[in-house]
Amino acid sequence: xxxxxxxxxxxxxxQAPLRAAARxxxxxxxVLWQGDSLEIRGEKADYLQVYDHxxxxxxxxxxxxxxxxxxxxxxxxxxxxIVRFLRDTLGAEALGIGYTAAYLKAAPAEAIGAExxxxxxxxxxxxxxxxxxxxxxxxxxVIAAHLEVAAQYGITIQGFEQDGRMHLCYDGEAFxxxxxxxxxxxxxxxxxxxxxxxxxxxxxxxxxxxNNLDIWRANVLDKVDVADLPxxxxxxxxxxxxxxxxxxxxxxxxxxxxxxxxxxxxxxQELAGVxxxxxxxxDNATYADAAIRVGATxxxxxxxxxxxxxxxxxxxxxxxxxxxxxxxxxxxxxxxPLVRRCSYGVVWPASARANANNxxxxxxxxxxxxxxxxxxxxxxxxxxxxxxxxxxxxxPNLGYVExxxxxPATNKILVAREIKVDGRFKRSFDVIGMDSLQxxxxxxxPEFLSTFYRWQDPSWKSQNVILR
Length: 468
Prior knowledge:
Layout: E1 8-11, E2 16-19, E3 28-32, E4 37-44, E5 47-52, E6 57-62, E7 66-69, H1 76-86, H2 93-106, H3 114-132, H4 140-152, E8 157-162, E9 165-170, H5 173-180, H6 185-194, H7 207-222, H8 231-254, H9 260-272, H10 283-296, E10 312-317, E11 323-328, E12 339-343, E13 346-354, E14 360-368, E15 371-380, E16 383-389, E17 398-407, E18 412-421, E19 424-433, E20 438-443, H11 450-455, H12 458-463
């Protein structure tokens, strides 16, 4: 007779059949997946008689396809040992979540520490990442089943549309518990990083909601003590903080707050604090991501110069939320400008640069939190016009393009770009002819192009982020 305490079994294999009788030829009642929990009601031959509460169905399952779990408090450490093994086992997230749930059910309240919730959050987050990966399509049935198993234990995974496909994210409840407990610095660092991810922000958020979220993310990250952390975790915190503070700088600029430059400088400091010699292979992409975010808002850290004689711009408020730019020179005032253009994006007046002949002027305008364009004011057909150079001819996501210098005695400019397209990061240094707005020459390092290397603007060379 079974012990009254050992009432639970966890399925360890995918696609384990739940049969109507204790025979291999018996009718299949349901298909079970790793991590499914079953109530044990008896034992017959090499089968267990069980009841599946999730499917509300009774049946028999082979003993070799499950593991009996003791729910006695003194046996809880055994379950925790298995959780430690499964915590970092790729593909076993649903099983690990099931074992963690069994441990939390069996262990006395005073014995439960941050380790169990750290493991639970880690496995839930990895399961969501697996489900979001492009390779997941090959295992759609398995991934979907594992997500259903996780859901029965109260794991909430949310979906957001990104780049035309669904991106899944764990809501972070277990990690929030870790931050509220007496966890060690590494556990708190992992938890803070997990709940402050850039790719798990709802794109449908309003500007006010996004600003509040970014401030909350900054506070969470700042509460982590980095003193005793290994270098790779310090780097990850620096990179996340850099991205978050760049977003705060953008929002503060939209709201015309006086602390905009402080937020931008904080982002630059966090990026500069990264120890590049200790970046892991997986962190190189994270570093590029953070650098683009910081690069997009770096003009917030610069002081707006006074209006000088010659070709220059003046900005003023337009419709609610709109900034208007007027181009003036010695003969054309603000009331009678050469050209006027308005934008709902953030205009960075400190970025305005006119060429020596006062025939062109460039200006950085940022319509989105991590997407900055270059506006070029120039003459065409005897009239002043504005052409917009985007970072890339793709859906706005992550990238910036910026002025890097004038090519003397020509109608050409130097620009630098840094973008993320289809999950890949790309940097380029281009020579653009303003007659056609076409890229005439492009390299991935400025020293590979003599025109770019020779005529790059000194202030750009000293201030940019792309040459990090």
